[in-house]
Amino acid sequence: MLNRLRLTAAMSAVIIQFVPIDKSAIAQEHEGCFLVNSAGEVINLNLLCSPQESIQLTGKDGKFIEDYKRLAKSYSPDATNNLLQGIQSSPSRKIAAAKKMCADAKSGVSLAEVKLRAIGQALSIENPTVKESFLADTDIITILAGNHYCPELANK
User: Fold this and answer.
1) In this structure, are residues 120 and 128 in contact, taking their beta carbons and an 8 Å threshold?
2) Cβ neighbours of 68 (radius 10 Å)
3) Angstrom distance (rounded) from CA 155 to CA 149
4) Rounded (to 5) percent helix, strand, coil in the chain
């Protein structure tokens, strides 16, 4: 019995070596996020995937995004990559955060206090790149919020 098992294993190993394997790549045949099931049907998964926002940003918002990208490049390469991915995937989230900072500042929370809170939150982040990215994001948004959305509060 053991010999038969060894013979089967050896034969399988020899046969597998001669099976042709196609190593060519093909381009994605459908747009967006999808899955092709065993019946060959294409199932749209766009709602499950995290698509990048495709909005036109002009005026203050466009300038905010442009300045964010410029400032993001002043950090370490890993943090810069994280920051640029974040602004590319959801610019409206960053804009909303800046506008919220201004609203908070108008209600009495200083922009410096926002930075101090971020430092407190960052203490629990163990990954140094994630920590740097988090603090850099807060720093950039705080600076740009004051410049673009509430310049009257920028120096307070």
Assistant:
1) no
2) 23
3) 13
4) 60, 5, 35
The residues facing 35 across adjacent strands are 43
Strand ranges (E), 42-86: 42-44
What is the spatial distance between Cα 53 and Cα 91, in angstroms, rounded to a whole number? Answer: 7
β-strand partners of 43: 35
Rg of the Cα atoms in the chain:
26
Amino acid (one-letter) located at 118: A
The pLDDT profile of the chain, 156 residues, written as one tens digit per residue, is 656 655 565 555 555 555 555 544 444 555 556 667 788 777 766 555 655 444 556 788 999 999 999 999 999 999 999 999 999 988 999 999 999 998 988 898 887 888 888 889 989 989 999 999 999 999 999 999 989 998 886 665
Give this prediction's pTM: 0.62
Q: What angle do CA 107, 112, 94 make, to 5 degrees?
A: 75
* β-pair partners for 36: 42
> Concatenated DSSP letters for 83-107?
HHHHHHH-HHHHHHHHHHHHHHHHT
